[in-house]
């Protein structure tokens, strides 16, 4: 006995799916409200609007308006203190019709069961992440991002877990689970294990990062495959953007994942009934939870769905990189404190080392002002840029950012009164600053911290005014955050087995920068302010040291 | 020297004003590292609201500051930002003047000792010159005004700034030799938070030194001075307590203020050591551990006073540090006050052994406090152990800093008495070992 074993219900689901196959412009709010009410749910809508800081290249407009529709299935005999969420983003066109149909079919089935102890909220959100952000902010009465939304009329209890569905075709050969959320936050590993266990029980093929599991762990190609899967996860986590609608739930301490249906033209196909049974099973498991999922790891990397790398394994790698910086700083400290005893004149000795701290202030202030310019100028001056150059707003923003970044390289270096000792003090301060910065980043978003550490630590430790200038300058620029992002874009495409040409890669790079800035303004992603306000000024300090006269 | 000081004050006031007007002010006033249940501005507003309604401000266990504070802000609530900025400026000016006076006395004492030929011949490089001492008062003011901890404390409108002002005025009056004002300001500081009580000992030692009264327990003049000082101190305390009673008409401020500080009922996380311990303690042992923790603050007074009876200003520094580390609800404003003293001991730099490690750890901990708070409270991936680990590390680094300076100070005194390059009896070089 399971979902849709009843032929009537199967008919109803097929009717729904056929109906949704027709192209729709915007979201069919009234139809959804009527259908959900017919299923016996308490239906409410929420309208929202957001003024984008610059028009997204996908939407090409400044203001995004939409409506979310959600229906609450009240638990028959339980106090209304906890809730679960099943959501399907509804984008214009027929991108996600099957998911909405499945959601409505499941709602109909769930309504007739008596074992629900938590309320189930069926949410259809418009404009993907923007709609989801508006709904979550309305539900939790916060306003993090300055969005305009109407208050929610109906509410369940505190949300324990959520799943988001993305099904693009009615024939599915495998299910992909997406875990990476905003700022690299991951749901509890128990949720991924739950999904994998159910897939195996029901016999559905499941993948992670779009790659299948392999059984040959000992062979080189199997190991290679696992490393590629893990590197994909690292790249996705480092970008700090939510890779599915679930990504925004994690900030509110709600474990969530996105389930994507993939049609890869395999021989063995799965139908909507099986997926429905899988989701029903998962929801029954989540229904039985007595407390929030917290027993398993929150920090992990997945080379496959049956293996994971915990924080205890990967953090020491980062720790060793940070130790390089600290040892170099210690070495500089010893050099600096050995200096005054060599000078004969006590007064000149103190003069050498004492104003060192103040002389560091000028490069620090200049590099942070440049970082602040990189953060604020692109969005503020997009109108001015559009007037003077024949580019669209998005391009103007991105190109201004790149221009400010490159202009920072040509900054005047301050007058150096202490040619020998001054750069040592500056390097000491810069090394400690970088170590603390990378440490804090790695604790919050390990992948971002590790990638930045891998590229910045060798250059930072190596650079002095006495190394060959042209070669070191080239390497320092090649390892700077912007170029790291460029290489990562190409690397990411390679890992996904969709390598791009240089032109396409460059355009993709520009769109990645635009998306990163938009993520910061829309959802509060920390990657853009971190890189612009903290990492880039730190890198500029090392550039300053390289060109110390 | 007035011009650099004025410039410094203008820069400091500008930075604070800019931060007051930005959106960061609200964020900072919520941080648990910057405000505690005693010093939070939100609670002062709550107390004022209760007072306006005619109810005692101490009802409801929200407000834990003294009645004088609430009456001060009754008149100044619209000018709160200016009040706190002014408090910081007055503190810096008081520390500047105190440092200048102290330097003058140190230099005079040194001159007498040189003329009396009391220093061994090879330790001339340890003698302080007027050139190096010239910029020390300005550095003291700068260390206080431009310390990020002080700026955060001011922008959050934490009443710790007012406490720091009173303590720095007490230090100024003590250094200038004014017994009555010193007792009155110390009494104000004790009245607000109990712990400055331990500063009685260094104050008395300094004033006795200044009036050439020998510190000898068998002399009548010693005890007579102690009696005088304690009479002034306890008298002003009595006056203040009675004044508070008459201001509010009841004694319920005593358990709310002093009972709260001493019995630590509120276990909100902060940068101190109490909250985690008492969160997991059985009720049966609570009183015992409470006594142990509170005695820990007062315990170091007598031994330190005996060891440092010739150097009462260093004793004030050590006492302030001990109070900031071991008090029941410390905040970064308390840490900023004793850090302002560090330029006074810049001549000890060559004897400090752990300064690099301490600076790195303090920097890293200050950066990790908000990160681990976010991971614990918002992301839910960490728990209180992580935050307490950073708290412990921060306090261990502070203790290491203070003990390092203590070691360096004693070592310099030792060298000034026995010479810089020590030789054993057969003439070979000796090494100094701290046992």
TrEMBL record, chain A:
Under Pfam families, the record lists:
Gaa1
Q: Where in the cell is it found?
A: Endoplasmic reticulum membrane
Q: Does the keyword Disulfide bond apply?
A: yes
- Tell me which GO cellular component terms the UniProt record holds: GPI-anchor transamidase complex
Residue ranges spanning the membrane: these are: 313-334, 355-376, 396-413, 425-453, 473-493, 505-523, 529-548
Which keywords label this protein? Disulfide bond, Endoplasmic reticulum, Glycoprotein, GPI-anchor biosynthesis, Membrane, Transmembrane, Transmembrane helix
**GO BP: any one term:** GPI anchor biosynthetic process
Q: Which pathway is recorded for this entry? A: Glycolipid biosynthesis; glycosylphosphatidylinositol-anchor biosynthesis
Q: What broad class describes the main subcellular location of this protein?
A: endoplasmic reticulum
Q: How does it sit in the membrane?
A: Multi-pass membrane protein
Please explain the role this protein plays, according to its UniProt record: Component of the glycosylphosphatidylinositol-anchor (GPI-anchor) transamidase (GPI-T) complex that catalyzes the formation of the linkage between a proprotein and a GPI-anchor and participates in GPI anchored protein biosynthesis. Binds GPI-anchor.
How does it associate, per the subunit comment? Heteropentamer. Part of the GPI-anchor transamidase complex, consisting of PIGK, PIGT, PIGS, PIGU and GAA1. Interacts with PIGK.
This chain belongs to the protein called GPI-anchor transamidase component GPAA1
Organism (species): Oryzias latipes
Provide the organism lineage as a comma list. Answer: Eukaryota, Metazoa, Chordata, Craniata, Vertebrata
TrEMBL record, chain B:
* Transmembrane spans: 68-99, 143-171, 220-251, 257-278, 285-302, 314-342, 354-379, 385-407
Kindly tell me the pathway this chain contributes to: Glycolipid biosynthesis; glycosylphosphatidylinositol-anchor biosynthesis
GO terms for CC? GPI-anchor transamidase complex
Cross-referenced InterPro entries = PIG-U (IPR009600)
Entries under PANTHER family matching the protein: GPI TRANSAMIDASE COMPONENT PIG-U (PTHR13121), PHOSPHATIDYLINOSITOL GLYCAN ANCHOR BIOSYNTHESIS CLASS U PROTEIN (PTHR13121:SF0)
Q: What's this protein's family per the entry?
A: Belongs to the PIGU family.
How is this protein named in the record?
Answer: Phosphatidylinositol glycan anchor biosynthesis, class U
The upper taxonomy is: Eukaryota, Metazoa, Chordata, Craniata, Vertebrata
């Amino acid at each position: 006995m399971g979902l849709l074993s009843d032929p009537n219900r199967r008919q109803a689901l097929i009717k729904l799916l056929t109906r949704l196959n027709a192209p729709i412009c915007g979201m069919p709010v009234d139809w959804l409200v009527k259908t959900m009410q017919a299923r016996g749910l308490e239906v409410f809508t929420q309208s929202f609007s957001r003024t984008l800081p610059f028009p997204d290249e996908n939407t090409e407009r400044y203001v995004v308006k939409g409506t979310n529709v959600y229906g609450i299935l009240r638990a028959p005999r339980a106090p209304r203190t906890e809730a679960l969420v099943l959501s399907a983003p509804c984008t214009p066109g027929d991108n996600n019709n099957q998911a909405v149909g499945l959601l409505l079919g499941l709602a109909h089935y769930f309504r007739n069961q008596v074992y629900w102890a938590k309320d189930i909220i069926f949410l259809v959100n418009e404009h993907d992440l923007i709609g989801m952000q508006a709904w979550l902010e309305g539900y939790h009465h916060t306003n993090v991002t300055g969005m305009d939304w109407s208050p929610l009329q109906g509410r369940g209890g505190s949300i324990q877990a959520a799943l988001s569905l993305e099904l693009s075709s009615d024939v599915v050969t495998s299910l992909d689970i997406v875990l990476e959320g905003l700022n690299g936050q991951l749901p509890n590993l128990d949720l991924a294990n739950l999904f994998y266990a159910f897939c195996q029980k029901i016999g559905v093929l499941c993948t992670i990062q779009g790659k299948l599991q392999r059984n040959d762990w000992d062979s080189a190609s199997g190991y290679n495959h696992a490393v590629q899967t893990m590197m994909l996860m690292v790249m996705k986590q480092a970008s700090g953007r939510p890779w599915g609608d679930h990504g925004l739930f994690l900030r509110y301490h709600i474990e969530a994942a996105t389930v994507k249906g993939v049609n890869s033209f395999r021989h063995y196909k799965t139908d909507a009934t099986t997926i429905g049974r899988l989701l029903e099973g998962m929801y029954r498991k989540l229904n039985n939870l007595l407390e929030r999922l917290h027993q398993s790891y929150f920090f992990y990397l997945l080379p496959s769905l049956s293996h994971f790398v915990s924080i205890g394994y990967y953090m020491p790698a980062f720790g060793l990189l940070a130790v390089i910086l600290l040892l170099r700083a210690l070495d500089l400290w010893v050099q600096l404190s050995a200096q005054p005893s060599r000078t004969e004149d006590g007064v000149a000795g103190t003069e050498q080392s004492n104003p060192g701290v103040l002389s560091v202030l000028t490069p620090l202030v200049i590099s942070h002002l440049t970082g602040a310019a990189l953060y604020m100028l692109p969005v503020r001056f997009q109108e001015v840029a559009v007037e003077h150059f024949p580019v669209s707003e998005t391009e103007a923003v991105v190109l201004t950012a790149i221009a400010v970044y490159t202009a920072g390289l040509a900054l005047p270096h301050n007058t150096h009164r202490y040619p020998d000792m001054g750069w040592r003090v500056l390097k000491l301060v810069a090394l400690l600053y970088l170590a603390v910065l990378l440490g804090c980043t790695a604790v919050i978003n390990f992948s971002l911290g590790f990638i930045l550490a891998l590229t910045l630590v060798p250059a930072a430790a190596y650079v002095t005014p006495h190394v060959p200038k042209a070669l070191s300058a080239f390497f320092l620029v090649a390892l700077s955050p912007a170029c790291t992002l460029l290489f990562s874009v190409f690397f990411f495409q390679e890992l996904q087995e969709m390598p791009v040409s240089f032109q396409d890669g460059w355009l993709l790079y520009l769109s990645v920068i635009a998306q990163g800035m938009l993520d910061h303004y829309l959802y509060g992603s920390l990657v853009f302010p971190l890189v612009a306000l903290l990492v880039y000024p730190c890198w500029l300090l090392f550039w300053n040291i390289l060109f110390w006269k | 020297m007035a011009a650099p000081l004025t410039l410094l004050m203008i820069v400091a006031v500008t930075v604070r004003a800019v931060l007051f007007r930005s959106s960061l002010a609200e964020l900072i006033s919520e941080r648990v590292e910057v405000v505690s249940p005693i010093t939070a501005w939100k609670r002062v507003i709550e107390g004022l609201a209760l007072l306006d309604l005619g109810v005692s401000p101490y009802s409801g266990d929200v407000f834990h500051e003294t009645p004088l504070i609430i009456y001060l802000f009754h008149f100044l609530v619209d000018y709160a930002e200016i009040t706190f900025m002014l408090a910081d400026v007055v503190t810096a000016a008081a520390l500047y003047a105190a440092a200048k006076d102290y330097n003058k006395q140190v230099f005079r004492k040194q001159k007498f000792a040189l003329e009396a030929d009391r220093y061994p011949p090879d330790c001339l490089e340890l003698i302080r010159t007027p050139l190096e001492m010239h910029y020390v008062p300005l550095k003291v003011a700068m260390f206080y005004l431009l310390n990020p901890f002080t700026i955060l404390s001011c922008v959050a409108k934490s009443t710790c700034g007012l406490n720091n002002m009173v303590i720095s005025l007490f230090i100024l009056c003590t250094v200038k030799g004014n017994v009555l004002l010193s007792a009155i300001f110390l009494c104000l500081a004790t009245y607000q938070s109990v712990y400055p009580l331990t500063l009685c000992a260094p104050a008395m030692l300094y004033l006795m030194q200044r009036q050439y009264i020998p510190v000898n327990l068998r002399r009548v003049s010693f005890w007579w001075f102690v009696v005088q000082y304690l009479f002034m101190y306890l008298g002003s305390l009595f006056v203040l307590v009675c004044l508070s009673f008459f201001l509010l008409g009841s004694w319920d401020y005593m358990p709310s203020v002093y009972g709260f500080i001493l019995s630590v009922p509120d276990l909100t996380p902060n940068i101190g050591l109490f909250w985690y311990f008492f969160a997991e303690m059985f009720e049966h042992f609570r009183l015992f551990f409470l006594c142990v923790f509170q005695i820990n603050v007062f315990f170091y007074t007598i031994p330190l006073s005996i060891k440092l009876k010739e150097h009462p200003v260093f004793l004030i520094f050590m006492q302030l540090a001990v109070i900031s580390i071991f008090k029941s609800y410390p905040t970064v404003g308390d840490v900023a006050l004793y850090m302002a003293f560090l330029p006074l001991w810049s001549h000890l730099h060559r004897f400090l052994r752990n300064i690099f490690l301490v600076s790195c750890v303090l920097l890293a901990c200050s950066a990790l406090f908000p990160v681990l708070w976010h991971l614990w409270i918002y992301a839910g991936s960490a728990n209180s152990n992580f935050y307490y680990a950073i708290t412990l590390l921060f306090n261990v680094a502070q203790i290491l800093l203070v003990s390092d300076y203590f070691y360096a100070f004693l070592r310099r005194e030792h060298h000034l008495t026995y010479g810089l390059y020590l030789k054993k009896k057969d003439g070979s070089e000796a090494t100094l070992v701290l046992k």
